[in-house]
Amino acid sequence: MKIGILGTGAVGKSLGTKLASLGHEVKMGSREAGNAAGAAWAKNAGGKASEGTFADAADFGEMVFIALRGDVVLPVLKALAKSVGAKKVKGKIFVDVSNPLDVSKPLPFPALPELTNTNSLGEEVQKALPDSLVVKALNTVNCEVMVNPSLVNGDSDLFICGNDAGAKRKVVDVLRSFGWTDPIDLGDITNARGTESLMPIWMRLWGYFKTPHFNFKMVK
Amino acid sequence: MKIGILGTGAVGKSLGTKLASLGHEVKMGSREAGNAAGAAWAKNAGGKASEGTFADAADFGEMVFIALRGDVVLPVLKALAKSVGAKKVKGKIFVDVSNPLDVSKPLPFPALPELTNTNSLGEEVQKALPDSLVVKALNTVNCEVMVNPSLVNGDSDLFICGNDAGAKRKVVDVLRSFGWTDPIDLGDITNARGTESLMPIWMRLWGYFKTPHFNFKMVK
Fold first, then answer.
1. Which chain A residues contact residue B185 at CB under 8 A?
2. Which domain holds residue A164?
3. How much is the ipTM here?
4. 0.80 exceeded by the pTM?
């Protein structure tokens, strides 16, 4: 599959490298084509990996991962929708793996107030791309665990939500290819309020466990 | 031990009945002494169970459980601190099992905005009772699971936080007597921001599992 990745940070690189290793054609997008991190990644990730602008990556991918810092997600997507054009992103799957954290504050980061409790970043992403199919996934685990669930001991759980069942099925196929069992499907995109709300305890558990390689498992 | 319970709802009754069955002297407090729910509970729970006002229960207990609806916790505690007197609650352990939910809204309830993200109910409880030892615990599980961890299949995790290590140890002893293994101690009371933030996903998982008898287990 052709896959776009928005963001050249640790999350984008982790996802991009894994997806390229699975045989996908991956284009990593950043603010400027030729960005050092994106170019270095494309060189290392091999023949089917490439880089360009956010718009290039969004145009390229049949599925596009949003792997950006929470505070820049919405400005980037709004600019993107304009520059790529609404037609080209219509019906396209955007997988939002980001969290609405205010990283200008000390750890544990609080949420950006307008994107928590009675709202979520996932919902605002869907509003910014109203004709695209937004799926919230993978935002509750560290980026190394995202693509390698065996970094935590024993089965653990992912959560997924989004308005389109078909888009969620396609994302679940990708998660399975990473080694995950089927995630818990919470329903429509408003349920991003639930999964993004795991961040406050996630960050505290990161301090407690002294490693980001942990996850939640639901038992009943 | 002499234990006070603030609240005669499902949570207060579940905790009170278990604590009485373990041999503790339990006094359940409500807005008015002789409250029907409190009186019926005290009659059923046996010889060492009694009821009275919030102030009676807080005065009685060496350890006092706050089992009230999130929106009434702070008004009740502020009135209590005045009526019982600061001296009598000084050094007393208050176990806050409540969550700052806005139950006037439809399910899944949002948080009361002033008590989430950069604040928490646990912290405000500590401010309302500045000379008492507030421990946040048990607020991440259903009230039947609180006193019977075997209702979920296999070991699962509780979280605890509070400013006083000795108070936390005494609460852990009570949790052990309910059948829990040692909870994850996240540190001081500001970590209530983490544990209270499990509510948005907890309520959605309640819908998903179609039972409140589930819990989180941490794996690493």
1. 208
2. 2-209
3. 0.97
4. yes
